[in-house]
């Protein structure tokens, strides 16, 4: 089996960390990114190395386009190519319209949406050369949480909704180069990145399965979408939310 190179942004904790450890094996070369948590990132990188993966790490704020370019350059410089990009870095913003600013909204779009485009634009030539390029963006249930008393996120949800539209446009544009692009939209996940508050309890009470999801459950969905087993799925949004939205 040929080696493949996979970029995972936001991989020092949560979904990104779970995915990195899940796909780590001798034939998978990983480029793991975090914004600033160097210690957490190295801990995950070491866990992946113990499973046989070659791992490169990089820090950078994806609100800046150069960070995305640097990540792709790191993959190519270290491993000679790129086979899959998982755009997982992102954040919810727990502010209402009165509390939030246009600057907050702009920052959410830069991190959640613009960074996806920057990664895709920088990675596209290498993904095309791969012959089986894969792109997975991580969206959010917050792009759909506007009814039934579910807490909503007016300052960050628009950017997550835009990610879903963007992935369809990217998939259509790159299909002729045998690059598949999909989105995974997690529900409320029980991880350190989730605000511990009444918000989570409210959402959990409305989940038909009666519990929060785990980072591993979301990672399993991403793992499939970047694998060779996924060969005829593109431009889709896969909701991993316990039935919160059907």
UniProtKB/TrEMBL annotation:
CDD domains, per the entry: SDR_c
Pfam families: adh_short_C2 (PF13561)
InterPro entries: NAD(P)-bd_dom_sf, SDR, SDR_fam
First and last residue of the signal peptide: none
PANTHER family the record matches: 3-OXOACYL-(ACYL-CARRIER-PROTEIN) REDUCTASE, 3-OXOACYL-[ACYL-CARRIER-PROTEIN] REDUCTASE FABG
Family per similarity comment: Belongs to the short-chain dehydrogenases/reductases (SDR) family.
Protein name: Short-chain dehydrogenase
